[in-house]
Each structure stands twice: as structure tokens, then as C-alpha cells.
Design a protein that fits this description.
With about 220 residues, the chain is of the alpha+beta class. The chain has a domain of about 150 residues: Pnp Oxidase, Chain A, CATH 2.30.110. It contains five helices and eight strands; from the N terminus they run βαβββαββααββα. A six-stranded antiparallel beta barrel has the order 2-3-4-7-6-5. The longest helix has 15 residues.
Length: about 220
Amino acid sequence: MTDHPRFNRARNPKRALYDEATVNAILDSGLVGHVGFIAEERPMVMPMAYARGPGCIWLHGASKARIVKLADEAALTMTVTLVDGIVAARSGFNHSVNYRSAVVHGKGRAVTEPEEFEAALKAITEHLLPGRYAEIRPMTAQERKATGVIALTIEAASAKVRSGPPVDDASDYTLGLWGGVLPVVTALGRGIPDGHTPQGASEPLSLARARARFSN
């Protein structure tokens, strides 16, 4: 277990993990983060593209989006959940889900410095499609103006994991009922070219890398 102060113990230790490697592995395996914040005295949650940065999570959004405008010093939280299986028990009470979930808490910071802005956009793009940044044209000034990047500075993070078969009441094992796990499989298919892709063009290498990264 790491001694890093950002990975703190929660009140309920059941299924909770606090080592940095476990949290990072879950974040690296997720496609979308759900980011919570307060706006107009109401709780909001937005799905956002993201990538891990140094001591932070970089988040991508439109420059005019509410969360981007409120980012500086705002309290933010982000969750990523990976569902691995449906746990079918012998009673409704003991049904469950096998999952891996990471929660990150911290403060927002609008990314405006050009070098970090570029590094963040590259990281966010390549979180989804590793190596893609080298395959595409550079961003235009207008596109850059329309894009917002937030750094969620990590103040605390934890993970929760549930795996394995159902935990039934001892008396239920003699009922002759089926119990076990229905696996949930994540797989990326082959790329489908649009009508503007030259005929016979090979699928970019970044798509194959994404399949290897996100398929289980």
C-alpha cells in the first residue's frame, strides 16, 4: 500500500483499495469518466473524456461548457466504473455485480498554458486511441479556441473492487438452484471507414492499439 497522501482511507473499508497502482490501472482501462461538480447550487454530473496527467486528471470539454467556465478552484470528483460480471445468487438479496471502480477527489484548474494544453489534448486523444495524435492533422486556432481543458488536481483517490462468485446463505446451497457469474465482456470491433476514406486505405495502427488496450 502506498503512503502517498492523495490515496486516503475511506470510512467504509469494505472492498476498498488505496494503492496508487490499483487506482491508476482502473483509470487507464476506462473510456469515460463521470465528473461531479456544483453549479447554481445544484449537483451536476457530466460524462467526459479524460487522461491521467502528472498529479492530475486532464478533462476535455467545450470551452463554453459550464464545467469549464467554473473549473478554477471548483471542487470536483470523477468516477470510472468497469463492470466485469453479473453475480447471480440463489436469492435476490445476494445478487451483486463484479466491478472495478475508482473515485478521484480534488480541485479544478483551467489549463491555459500552451505547452500543458497541448500535452493534455495529446494525452486525452491517445488515452482512447494510442498513437492517434501522430496520424492526424494539427489543431487549428479556431478549434483550440473552442476547446477547454481542465486539470483535476488529485487530493484523494480510492478504488473499490468486487470479484468472484455469489456469497449465498449456507442453507441456499442445498436448494438445487443455479448460482454463478455472467461475465461482461468489453470488446472493440474493426474500424468502419466513412465515405471520405480512400478506398483500400488500411485501418490506422491506433485502432488496433485501442482494441488491445480496452478489450478483455
